[in-house]
Amino acid sequence: MAVHKGSEGTIKVGSNAVSELVSYSITENIDLIETTNITDSARTYSTGKTSWSGEVATNWDETDTNGQGALTIGASVALTFYPEGDSSSDTYYSGTALVTSLDKSADGEGLVTNTIGVTGTGALGTSTV
């Protein structure tokens, strides 16, 4: 059984790595379509369309113009998530996403952080490097 550390991962916008990556998540969903008949004693369902969304957290780096800087509100971007790195035979997930939220925050004891929300437009693909 293969296991991977979170520190192996990276995210790219196009071919540019996002700098100062702290964490990320990808959520895949599928719609359910109810197929229950009036005489059925239990509800039944079929699957519908898929969707995906994600969140990227970074330490803010205003000099990362092709990574963090490309993730502006409303932007349509090609994203690639590499959970185990981007070496030969590593699995990755890719798709086009719209940037739907941006949150910069800071406190007196830490760094300025950047949290970016994305919503996929189209399918999320899975492949290997």
Question: What is the topology?
Answer:
Elements (H helix, E strand, L loop, with lengths): L9 E4 L2 E2 L3 E14 L10 E15 L16 E7 L8 E15 L7 E8 L4 E4 L1
Antiparallel strand pairs: 1-2, 1-5, 3-4, 4-7, 5-6, 6-7, 6-8
How confident overall, as mean pLDDT?
Answer: 94
What are the segments in which pLDDT stays under 50 over at least 5 consecutive residues? none
Measured distance between first and last alpha carbons = 20 Å
Query: What is the class in the CATH system?
Result: Mainly Beta
Please, how many domains? 1
Order of helices and strands: EEEEEEEE
What CATH calls the topology is Pnp Oxidase, Chain A
Instruction: Give the overall shape.
Output: globular
Helix content: under 10%
Write out the CATH superfamily name: Hcp1-like
Structural class of the helices, strands and pairings?
Answer: mainly beta
How would you sum up this structure, described in words?
- It contains no helices and eight strands.
- It has 129 residues and is an all-beta fold.
- It has one domain: Hcp1-like (Pnp Oxidase, Chain A, Roll), CATH 2.30.110.20.
- Strands 1, 2, 3, 4, 5, 6, 7 and 8 form an eight-stranded antiparallel β-sheet that branches.
- β1 (10-13) and β2 (16-17) form a beta hairpin.
- The mean pLDDT is 94.
Features:
single chain; 129 residues; mainly beta; Pnp Oxidase, Chain A; eight-stranded antiparallel beta sheet; 8 strands; globular
